[in-house]
Specification:
Number of domains: 2
Order of helices and strands: HHHHHEEHEEEEHHHHHHEHH
Strand order of the largest sheet: 3-7-4
Number of helices: 14
CATH architecture of the largest domain: Up-down Bundle
GO molecular function: aspartic-type endopeptidase activity
Subcellular location: Cell membrane
Shape: elongated
Radius of gyration: 25 Å
Number of strands: 7
Strand content: 5-15%
CATH class of the largest domain: Mainly Alpha
Structural class: mainly alpha
Keywords: Cell membrane, Membrane, Transmembrane, Transmembrane helix
Protein name: Peptidase A24
GO cellular component, one term: plasma membrane
Largest sheet: 3 strands, antiparallel
CATH topology of the largest domain: Four Helix Bundle (Hemerythrin (Met), subunit A)
């Protein structure tokens, strides 16, 4: 039997724990679009310990040049990648799990790790800057670019032509509540800011009905008087909880404060609130993923009129991030190689 040894420093070998963790997180992101916070805690502790370990080793090392390079790379990784990830989260470009994962990469991989195989050392392609978290970031972006190209190619092959063909796919309306993503349609046509499907599931659970019920009698469901006296807990819109079970409805529909419930019901007779969109968003104790009453109303109007709609399933960002991490640890920096090929690096 052939045994191939993979050698490197102890901290670099311990950093490989990130690969299965990110692989599992990417799988969870695909299946549920939810990654538990506890996923990152052990890896974050390990990252801090390894960073301090490396800092001590370098600080007590023989060369001042090596010390300066290491601490410059740490400063760039922590001072650039972490604020960048946080900024993208603030503007909605990243989900919470995506931002946490990139912040973790910044701490865990500030400088290039090295793994010695019998005939070669990995990663193969390093950069002049030598900040490994930037390599993971650039490889993740490149991996993410492949997604819309693949989506467009699939739509072309199936003869689907639309303004949404680079970012979405058509699905039957009856399947919408079993999908993750966002509607790409409004009553006026193509709309990249359509209704979030998690918010749709929250709304349906809140008013205790199905999309089929609404489509069967949209005129009745547009009326505020059709709303339940005691709405349900909307949940978080996920198709499954962390345990893989359907999101439970823990509200007793027959209970509640009868006086307050009747007051709410009486109030619905006098407000101008088609579909109860404003009441839903005011009633829940958290945001429905930034959904506005108009987005919810427009989305429902589309879903009761059409039999097929375009949705953007989006790409769970942890998937290209996992791919970017694996490519970075093996090949190295793809963008730097491309720039070298054209004489720009």
């Amino acid at each position: 039997m052939l045994h191939i040894a993979v050698l490197g420093s102890i901290p670099d070998l311990l950093r490989l724990v990130a690969v299965p963790v990110f692989g599992w997180a990417a799988y969870r992101d695909v299946k549920t679009r939810r990654v538990p916070n506890r996923t990152w805690t052990p890896l974050a502790v390990l990252a801090v310990v390894l960073l301090l370990w490396d800092a001590y080793t370098v600080w007590t090392g023989p060369t001042a040049v090596g010390q300066r390079l290491f601490f410059i790379r740490v400063a760039i990784s922590l001072g650039f990648v972490i604020p960048l990830s946080y900024g993208f989260w603030l503007i909605g470009g990243f989900g919470g799990a995506d931002a946490k994962a990139f912040m973790l990469i910044a701490v865990l991989f500030p400088a290039y790790p090295v793994y010695y195989l019998p005939t070669v050392a990995l990663p193969l392609q390093q950069t002049a800057v030598g900040v490994f978290s930037l390599t993971v970031l650039s490889n993740t972006v490149l991996a993410g670019i492949i997604y819309p190209l693949a989506v467009a190619a699939g739509n072309l092959a199936r003869g689907r032509f639309s303004l949404a063909m680079f970012i979405g796919r058509p699905v039957p309306v009856k399947q919408v509540t079993a999908e993750y993503g966002r509607l790409l349609e409004s009553p006026d046509g193509f709309d990249r800011s359509g209704l979030d499907l998690d918010a749709l599931r929250m709304y349906l659970q809140w008013r205790d009905c199905s999309l089929a019920d609404i489509r069967a009698d949209p005129d009745q469901h547009r009326l505020p008087t059709s709303l339940p006296r005691v709405p349900n807990d909307p949940g978080d819109g996920s198709l499954a909880t962390d345990g893989g079970d359907p999101v439970a409805n823990d509200v007793d529909k027959s209970g509640g404060d009868d006086a307050s419930a009747q007051a709410v019901a009486d109030n619905t007779d006098t407000i101008d609130d088609p579909w109860g969109a404003e009441r839903f968003l005011n009633d829940i104790d958290h945001s429905a993923y930034g959904t506005s009453p108009d987005q919810l109303r427009d989305g429902l109007e589309v879903l009761v009129e059409e039999d097929e709609v375009w949705i953007s399933p989006g790409i769970p960002f942890l998937v290209p991030m996992f791919a970017g991490l694996v490519v970075s640890l093996t090949y190295g920096d793809v963008l730097f190689s491309l720039l070298q090929m054209v004489g720009l690096a």
